[in-house]
Write the structure tokens for this entry.
Amino acid sequence: ILNVEQSPQSLHVQEGDSTNFTCSFPSSNFYALHWYRWETAKSPEALFVMTLNGDEKKKGRISATLNTKEGYSYLYIKGSQPEDSATYLCASLGINKFYFGSGTKLNVKP
Amino acid sequence: ETGVTQTPRHLVMGMTNKKSLKCEQHLGHNAMYWYKQSAKKPLELMFVYSLEERVENNSVPSRFSPECPNSSHLFLHLHTLQPEDSALYLCASSQGQGRPGATNEKLFFGSGTQLSVL
């Protein structure tokens, strides 16, 4: 079993603030790191899939980095908006299986 | 809309009932998954089907019985559940090449079935 840890567990920010969360995972038997965004009462949706050490991905105001040697990934949100409020999940792909973290719940206040 | 549909959205059942959860995808994906999310816990993989064949059974009790009649449909049959089985059950699919999880392809999730066992 891979332990995937996410921090913080929850985060409250004001509209316009920039924020970031951490996902840490065992660096052995690593194949890929996924980030998902999960709004309440909706389906989790994939944000990024990263595989290579040093990978950086960006989608609008959201970006992510990956360090496979030390086993962590950061997700950044620039200028948070209320519609960014959601739970952000990371998942590490080990041998034939995804291991999910418990998520970071982001609440952006207008 | 991710292209993966789950029904019902909510289900309340007694411990002696038999019920089924349904998942449908029209994305042309080869692999389908059942995940369980209990309160304040990470998503736990239950079952994986690749090309209609079960390739993973993650030590799930026999009171949960999956069925994959074709590559677009996945069921989870429930029988004699316990109150601790109350959770959100999520279905997902991925394109795969017959070996789900061996690639870095992303998962497409349904909205889940919130199950309460009384």
Q: What stands out?
A: The mean pLDDT of chain B is 89. DSSP finds no helices and eleven strands in chain B. Residues 68 and 74 of chain B are 5 Å apart (CA to CA).
